[in-house]
Write a structure and sequence with these properties.
The protein has 453 residues and is of the alpha/beta class. It folds into three domains: 122 residues, Methylthiotransferase, N-terminal domain (Rossmann fold, 3-Layer(aba) Sandwich); 230 residues, Alpha-Beta Horseshoe (pyruvate-formate lyase- activating enzyme); 61 residues, Nucleic acid-binding proteins (OB fold (Dihydrolipoamide Acetyltransferase, E2P)), CATH 2.40.50. The chain is built from twelve helices and 19 strands. It is globular. The structure holds 5'-deoxyadenosine and iron/sulfur cluster. 5'-deoxyadenosine (5AD) binds next to strand 13.
Length: 453
């Protein structure tokens, strides 16, 4: 019997979600089929994340479960993909001996070969990083749906001192503009309504060979023109490379969402320098002001790290100040986690766990009250919402998102198909969710300019 059933679990960022689709694309070309059940799979893969210690701990825990399964069914191949494959190959294969396969993010093309090696009883190991691999020609395997992730560039050259990504994902490189536009065209034909262009640092996108020009603003413009009824988002942006051209491009195209994820990490210039973030708080705030001027109604989200080495209370208060100043719509907030091999790892991790917890808690509370206030300001306002389907909690309500990525719950008095744009009036808000009343459907033709509320 052919061994062809593969089960994948994905951890970490959206890049990994997109990579899992690439992996499935590669494997399907070789006759594999996706299974949603580990018990009856021939190959179990974990697409892993190394960004913080607790991400890795979770995955080690999960590997424990699969070890039990493997004692019952020794022929099953268990493999680690993604960032942990790069960082921990020795530990996983030689010391802990729990996996048969370790394949890093630039070697997925050869995954079928490595799986064959493992089927034959050897260890399949592929962890070389590449300067050129972008999987440009691989068609990712995607279920039908409304939203798709498209990875447009890989790797990162920024070397923030806390971050393991430049080591686990290698140097920056971009896909061709043409292949990305083609992918969006095919998603449009499949009635997808939203694409998110992904990269560790999307603003560094550069396709030097494209006839149409090739920086990130050019790419966004080209993607936006494919189908005006499709929303276009992108993440993540580094403050150093957010150009005016990009801001004007977002302003110009109505289906480019007026929403920018712009990690600040800290509000203290001293800490930003230790982090090698290459901007000051003043520069960051100036950029935010410029974006607000050029893109009316733009909203922001951010990433913040609490308790970087040497962080004092004063530094921490500076972070809270930036948050009040920008008034982010959302934030991803983390305790600093030392990562072996990074520059910050050599700095003393001198903020105690207790302090990190306290500061993180303050940051979370500050963000919750900002989000609450901002959402309250939307009451009685009209928003255009892309309806995604029934809400998670009840079939009496639909859930959808605004252009600024806020979840809106709408009473399901009237039948609304997923993928429909509707105009709603917001009548209630918490820090996390808006509630709205259906007003009307909004028709957006593929070639038309999107209406705003
Ligand atoms: N510790 C805590 N947070 C980290 N991040 C990256 N590395 C670390 C680390 N070592 C956060 C940053 C980044 C986000 C993806 O994860 O805020 O923007
Ligand atoms: Fe990590 Fe900094 Fe690169 Fe983001 S920009 S992936 S935080 S090194």
């Amino acid at each position: 019997m052919q061994k062809n059933k593969v089960y994948i679990e994905t951890y970490g960022c959206q890049m990994n979600v997109a990579d899992t689709e690439i992996v499935l694309g590669v494997l399907k070309n070789q006759g594999y089929v996706a299974s949603d059940n580990a018990e009856n799979a021939d190959v179990i893969l974990l697409n892993t994340c190394s960004i913080r210690e607790n991400a890795e701990q979770r995955i080690y825990g999960r590997l424990g479960n699969f070890k039990a399964l493997k004692t019952k069914k020794p022929e099953v191949v268990v493999g680690i993909l993604g960032c942990m494959a790069e960082r921990l190959r020795k530990d996983l294969i030689e010391e802990k001996k729990i996996v048969d396969l370790v394949v890093g993010p630039d070697e997925y093309r050869r995954l079928p070969e490595y799986i064959d090696v493992a089927f034959n009883g050897d260890k399949g190991i592929g962890v070389k990083l590449s300067r050129t691999e972008t999987y440009d020609d691989i068609e990712p395997h995607r279920e039908d749906g409304l939203s798709a992730w498209i990875s447009v560039m890989r790797g990162c050259d920024k070397f923030c001192t806390f971050c393991v990504v430049p080591y686990t994902r290698g140097r920056e490189r971009s896909r061709s503009l043409e292949s990305i536009v083609k992918e969006v065209e095919s998603l449009s034909a499949r009635r997808f309504k939203e694409v998110t262009l992904l990269g560790q640092n999307v603003n560094s996108y550069s396709d030097e060979n494209s006839a149409t020009g090739g920086d990130f603003a050019d790419l966004l413009a080209a993607v936006a023109k494919v189908d005006r009824s499709m929303r276009v988002r992108f993440t993540t942006s580094h403050p150093q490379d957010l150009s005016d051209k990009l801001l004007y491009t977002i302003a110009e195209h109505p289906n480019l969402c007026n929403y920018i994820h712009l990690p600040v990490q800290s509000g203290s210039n001293r800490i930003l320098e230790l982090m090698n973030r290459t901007y000051t708080v003043e520069h960051y705030l100036e950029l935010i002001e410029r974006a607000k001027r050029i893109i009316p109604g733009v909203s922001f989200s951010t990433d913040i790290i609490a308790g970087f080495p040497t962080e004092t209370w004063e530094d921490h208060f500076a972070t809270l100040d930036v948050m009040q100043n920008v008034r982010y719509d959302g934030a991803y907030m983390f305790k600093y986690s030392p990562r072996e091999g990074t520059k910050a790892y050599r700095m003393e991790d001198d903020v105690t766990e207790e302090m990190k917890t306290k500061r993180l808690q303050e940051i979370i509370e500050a963000q919750q009250s900002i989000s609450f206030e901002k959402n309250q300001e939307l009451i009685d306002k009209e928003e255009v919402v892309l309806v995604e389907g029934y809400s998670r909690k009840s079939d009496d309500f639909y859930a959808g998102r605004t252009d600024s990525n806020k979840v809106v719950i709408i009473s399901a008095d009237k039948e609304i198909q997923p993928g429909t744009y509707v105009k709603v009036k917001i009548n209630k808000a918490t820090h996390a969710t808006l509630f709205g009343k259906f007003l009307s459907e909004v028709q957006i033709e593929k070639e038309n300019i999107v209406l705003s509320a």
